[in-house]
Amino acid sequence: xxxxxxxxxxxxxxxxxxxxEAYAKSDSAGTGLKDVASGSAYAQTEAGLAxxxxxxxxxxGEAKHSGTSVIFKDGQKLKTAVITDCVDVAQWKPxxxxxxxxxxxxQTRLVRYVTELTAEKWPTGWVVIExxxxxxxx
Length: 138
What we know:
The protein is an alpha+beta fold and 138 residues long. Helix content is 33%, strand content 35%. It has helices at residues 2-25, 33-36, 39-55; strands spanning 57-61, 64-73, 80-88, 92-96, 112-122, 125-132.
């Protein structure tokens, strides 16, 4: 079980590296997003990237993670893991692509929040299929 948790954690870390790369250019082309995300997780990411592109923005820096936990769900068709994490986006900031000026963000925006992801073990490895952000600070 520890080996599987390590595999899931490695896949989760890769997922975030790919997200960081995609958001840094507001485009998933060449990032391997399709290798690490599918389903609603993929669709949400592409929608977020489209919003950035239409606003002329990219995201610089990177998110930090703490308190990551992995549990496995029984009775699923494919091996399934739920990853819960505290994400800190204080240093992951949207900026104007041309000027580098930081985009204004709502005062009520959570800077540290809980995220819950579901990943499945596919023949190619673990793939994130869903990401939920319940709006809970951590």
